[in-house]
TrEMBL record:
Pfam families attached to this UniProt entry: EccD (PF19053)
Organism whose genome encodes this protein: Flaviflexus ciconiae
Signal peptide: none
Keyword Membrane belongs to the record: yes
Name of the molecule in the record: EccD-like transmembrane domain-containing protein
The entry's keywords: Membrane, Transmembrane, Transmembrane helix
Membrane-spanning segments: 46-64, 76-96, 102-123, 169-189, 195-213, 225-243, 249-269, 281-307
Highest taxon in the source lineage: Bacteria
Keyword Nucleotidyltransferase: no
Length: 313
C-alpha cells in the first residue's frame, strides 16, 4: 500500500490510465495477501479492499497533481467515485448475506448503460464558459441590451478536449473491463435450469449487442475498438465455460445466418439511393439492449426469488 501511494505521488506524464495501473496492481496484491490472512469469504474481502484502496490512491493522486493536470485530476475523481461505489455495493451485498455473484450481476447489468451514456457525461462545460453571466449583468446598459465580453466567454477548447478525451477513455476502459471481469460469474447462470438460464442468455445477448452497436456513433479509435474486442472476449469466455444451452457449432451457424441475412438485404438495396433502415434497426436494438441489460441480469441472478422468498434459490 505504501508503494502504491508513492507511485500515486509521481509527476504526471499525460497518460492517466497508465499512471493508475501500477498503484492498482499493488493494491490488488496487498488486498489478496490481506484476505488470505483472514478467515471468511476471500472474494468479498479482495474486492472491497481493492476498491477502497484504489479510491484512496485516486484521491491522493487528485490532490497531488489535479491542479496543474486537469485531465489527470478529472480521471482520478471519476476513478475514486466509481471504486467507492463498487465497494459500498459489495459491502451491502455482504451485509445482506448474499454471494459475490450478486455484485457481479449488478456491475454486469450497469456497464452497457454506462457505455452508452459516456459520450454525454464525459465532458463538463460550465454555463459561465458559454456565457459570462456576471459580466453581462454588471455591464448591461439596459435590461434588454447586454454586451458580452468575448474574451471572458471564450472557452479553453484545448483544455476541455483534453479532459473530455481522458474521461471518455477511462469510462470506456472501466465499463469494458467490468463486463469482461464479471462474465465468468454470469456464465455460471447459463447452466441454471428453468427460466433463469434463458434470462441469463438474453442478458449476455444484450451486453454483446450494446458493445457492438454503441461504438457506431463515435469517432474515437478506443471507443470503436475496445467495446468490440470486449464483445468477442465475452463470447469466447461463455463458449469456453461450456454452459451454453446449445453447442458452439449451432451458435456459429446462427451467427453466420444472421450475417448472410444482413448481407443479402444490403445487396437488395439499390445503389446510389440512400437507405437508413439498417441505421434505424441498429438504433432500436441498441436502445433495447441498453435498457434491458440491468433488469435481465437482476432477474437471472434471482432477485425475483429474493423478493418472494428471501433467498436467491
Amino acid at each position: 500500500m505504501l508503494f502504491a501511494l508513492l507511485l500515486a505521488c509521481r509527476d504526471p506524464y499525460g497518460k492517466p490510465l497508465l499512471e493508475v495501473g501500477g498503484p492498482v496492481a499493488l493494491i490488488f496484491g496487498a488486498s489478496s495477501l490481506l484476505s488470505f490472512a483472514n478467515p471468511g469469504d476471500h472474494t468479498h474481502q479482495v474486492l472491497i479492499a481493492t476498491m477502497l484502496g484504489t479510491s484512496m490512491v485516486s484521491l491522493v493522486r487528485w490532490v497531488y497533481c489535479g491542479r496543474y493536470r486537469p485531465d489527470t485530476g478529472n480521471v482520478c475523481i471519476d476513478a475514486a467515485l466509481l471504486t467507492l461505489a463498487v465497494a459500498l455495493l459489495d459491502i451491502g451485498v455482504m451485509s445482506a448475506g448474499l454471494p459475490i455473484e450478486f455484485t457481479a450481476a449488478v456491475v454486469f447489468g450497469l456497464c452497457p448503460p454506462l457505455l452508452a451514456a459516456m459520450s454525454g457525461f464525459s465532458i463538463r462545460v460550465s454555463s459561465d464558459v458559454l456565457l459570462d453571466s456576471e459580466s453581462v449583468i454588471r455591464e448591461a446598459p439596459a435590461v434588454r441590451s447586454a454586451s458580452v465580453d468575448e474574451e471572458a466567454a471564450r472557452p479553453d477548447v484545448g483544455k476541455l478536449m483534453a479532459i473530455s478525451s481522458a474521461r471518455n477513455s477511462f469510462w470506456v476502459t472501466a465499463t469494458c473491463l467490468g463486463l469482461v471481469v464479471t462474465t465468468p460469474a454470469m456464465a455460471n447462470l447459463l447452466a441454471v435450469e428453468g427460466w433463469r438460464g434463458t434470462v441469463a442468455f438474453l442478458a449476455f445477448l444484450a451486453a454483446v449487442a450494446a458493445c457492438l452497436l454503441v461504438p457506431r456513433s463515435s469517432s474515437s479509435r478506443l471507443v470503436r475498438i475496445l467495446p468490440r474486442v470486449s464483445a468477442a472476449t465475452i463470447l469466447a469466455i461463455v463458449i469456453w465455460s461450456g454452459t451454453l444451452p446449445f453447442t458452439p457449432l449451432k451458435l456459429a451457424i446462427g451467427l453466420a445466418l444472421i450475417g448472410l441475412l444482413f448481407l443479402g438485404a444490403s445487396l437488395l438495396v439499390r445503389q446510389g439511393r440512400p437507405f437508413y433502415g439498417f441505421s434505424r434497426i441498429g438504433d432500436i436494438l441498441q436502445t433495447l439492449s441498453v435498457s434491458t441489460s440491468l433488469p435481465l441480469t437482476l432477474a437471472a441472478i434471482g432477485v425475483i426469488s429474493l423478493v418472494r422468498t428471501g433467498g436467491l434459490g
